[in-house]
Structures are given as C-alpha cells and as structure tokens.
Design a protein that fits this description.
heterodimer; A: about 120 residues; alpha/beta; Udp-n-acetylmuramoylalanyl-d-glutamate--2,6- Diaminopimelate Ligase, Chain: A, domain 1; five-stranded mixed sheet; 5 helices; 5 strands; about 15% strand; globular; B: about 240 residues; TIM Barrel; nine-stranded mixed sheet; two-stranded antiparallel sheet; 7 helices
Chain lengths: ~120, ~240
C-alpha cells in the first residue's frame, strides 16, 4: 500500500517528507522506546509513536522506515521537523490515540507481522 | 587528592526509597563505606539536600546537592550543584513542570526530614512522575544555572537515555553519563563515564563509586574531572 493512500484514508497531516509519499508501506510498528524501535522496526514499516524528539528522525532513517506518525495530535519539536525536512523523512500527525490509529491501519490491511 | 564518590544516592524523599534512608543515616553509611563524597539525588526534588549537607558537617564526608530529573521522554538526568541557591532554582523549574499528586499507598511515602532524621513533612507532589521538560531543556536548564548534567544509568533498560531515545543526541552537551555495570556503555568515547550506586536502600550505598583525582571534594572539581581539565580526572 502506498503511503499516500494511507495519508488520505486516515486524514493524516503531513509535516515533512511530502516528496516521499509514493513509497510503499510494508507493515507497521508501534512503540515509544527508541531502543526498541531500533531493534525491531523493519524497512518499510510505518512507525506509530508519541515521541516527538529529534532522535526519531535518525531512527526512521537508520531502519529505513516508511515514515513516522505522531499520535494524539502531538506536534514534532522544531528540531525534529527541521531534521525530517532535511533528510526527507516522512513525518505525519494524527489526532487519534495510538490504539485507534493502529486499529485503523490494520483495517486497511497493514500488519505488524512479516512472513 | 584522590576521592571516592558515589554521586547518585536517594533519600526517603524518593517514594521508591526506604524510610531508613534519612539524611543523617545516608551520610553515616557513606562515611562507613569509606566514601569521601556523596551526591543526594532524589526524584524531581532536592528538599532533603539541605538536611544531608547539615548532617555532613564534621562527618568527614562532603555532600553534593543534586536532583534526578525525569524528562518528558522519561529519561532520568542527574543535576549536581555546588550552589544551594541554584539548586533551589532548578527545583522551582522542575515543580512548575511536574503535574499530579502522590498516592503514598501506590508509590510510597515522601518524607522531608531535618539533619537529625526527624520528619518535617510529607511532599504531596507526584515526584515519581515525568516533567513536561524535554531532555534538551533539562540539560540546558542545569547548565544555565551552573550545574552538571549527567545522564543516569544509561545502561539500564528503563528510564535511561539509551532505552528511551536510542542513542545520545549529537550536541546535547552532557558532562557525563552514569553506568551501572562494568561494561562500557554505548555512548560516544569522549563522554566521561561515572559509576554510582543509585542507592534506594542503606546497604546499597557505595556499592558502586567513582575515583576522582581533584583538588577539593566539590561539584565544580568533579565537573573539571569529567572534562579532564587542569589535571583533574577520573581514575580507573
């Protein structure tokens, strides 16, 4: 599924990386401990988190994630936004809480499992 | 002079610490364990520091005033101060950014004591909670007020800079990191590493400590040692 479709279907707002929305999303991962996401986030995963710290951008790049979605209407810190724009990392914002957002992503066909 | 310092010790003000961790008992145990310096660092509060400093007068051991701040990312950061007034200012900033009330049955009692170990009052704040301050804001606040900023127990799986944020952000400006095991932590090589007990019970005091080569047993001298200035350094 293309990132663009997900953005439209779930009404996500794009804060950075608008040029990379044609990317294919292969699965999803939810987590707020960056050490855990570094260990378990797989290439092409859409990452759902409440962390707004600049390190999130580096983690998304490092693990080749499809993008980051901030939940509960949280906005990225200024430096996070800057880094994401500079590195063309997709940074999205949702007003939904994590549980609801993940449920809807699953409903669209994304999975947290890879076979 | 060579000193042995345990720079991370709680008192009974921290809800998760034993009641027997009264300021005078902590000082006494530190002395018995052969430490020259201890830093009192309670969760998000420094209200037992003054009692500990008073209890240390003529005790042959120096107490550094400190605080263990929880950032909004739930990273624990130690702030160490040579100046009481600066420490009080930090505490004000922390309190302005800390919400909630303590539930003693769930989290534990929070005793403010005097230098004789008598209960002066309870703190009703939710000291175990996270502040609304980012990691960067905490480090900047500590430095602006003349303190040292040390990321606590970076090698633990909870409440550490590494567990919460994966790695040390470039340009953060920490004075050092604290490790709780003998293995070198996953931090840039130029960052000083101290080892401390993070004692919540009397018997844990001094179970880990750092040896420093300094001129005097003060926070500023330790800051110089962390940055290897004018011959001050950590002894390994």
């Amino acid at each position: 599924m293309k990132l663009n479709d997900i953005v439209q279907k779930l009404g996500l707002e794009v804060r950075a990386g608008a040029g990379a929305l044609a990317a294919e999303v292969r699965g999803g991962y939810a987590g707020d401990l960056l050490s855990d996401v570094i260990a378990h986030g797989r290439p092409g995963d859409l990452w759902v988190t409440l962390q707004t710290h600049p390190n999130t951008v580096a983690v998304a790049s490092m693990n080749a994630l499809a993008g980051i979605v901030l939940v509960n209407g949280r906005e990225p810190e200024a430096e996070t936004l800057q880094k994401a724009q500079a590195e063309n990392v997709v940074l999205l914002v949702s007003t939904l809480p994590t549980f609801e957002l993940v449920g809807r992503l699953y409903g669209l066909g994304l999975s947290g499992m890879r076979t | 002079m060579e000193i042995r310092a345990d720079l991370h010790i709680h008192t009974c003000l921290s809800p998760c610490a034993d009641r027997e961790m009264s300021p005078p008992a902590v000082v006494r145990r530190g002395r018995e364990k052969g430490l020259h310096v201890i830093a009192v660092c309670d969760h998000n509060s420094a209200e037992n520091v003054e009692a500990a400093i008073r209890a240390s007068e003529d005790a042959g051991l120096a107490v550094i005033g400190g605080i263990e701040i929880t950032t909004r990312e739930e990273v624990h950061v130690l702030g160490l101060f040579k100046d009481d007034r600066a420490l009080r200012s930090v505490q004000e900033v922390v309190y302005e950014n800390l919400r909630g009330e303590n539930d003693p049955e769930t989290f534990g009692e929070q005793w403010v004591m005097n230098e004789r170990g008598e209960v002066v009052r309870h703190s009703g704040r939710l000291l175990i909670g996270a502040t609304g301050l980012s990691l960067e804001e905490v480090v900047q606040t500590l430095h602006r007020l003349g303190g040292l900023a040390i990321a606590a127990h970076v090698d633990r799986p909870r409440f550490s800079l590494i567990s919460q944020l994966g790695f040390v952000p470039a340009g953060l400006g920490l004075d050092g990191v604290e490790a709780c095991s003998d293995k070198p932590p996953a931090v840039p090589k130029d960052l000083a590493v101290v080892r401390s007990s993070d004692a919540h019970r009397l018997e844990e005091i001094g179970s880990r400590y750092t040896r420093f080569l300094v001129e005097r047993p003060t926070a500023s001298e330790i800051g110089m040692a962390l940055r290897r200035i004018e011959g001050r350094r950590i002894l390994t």
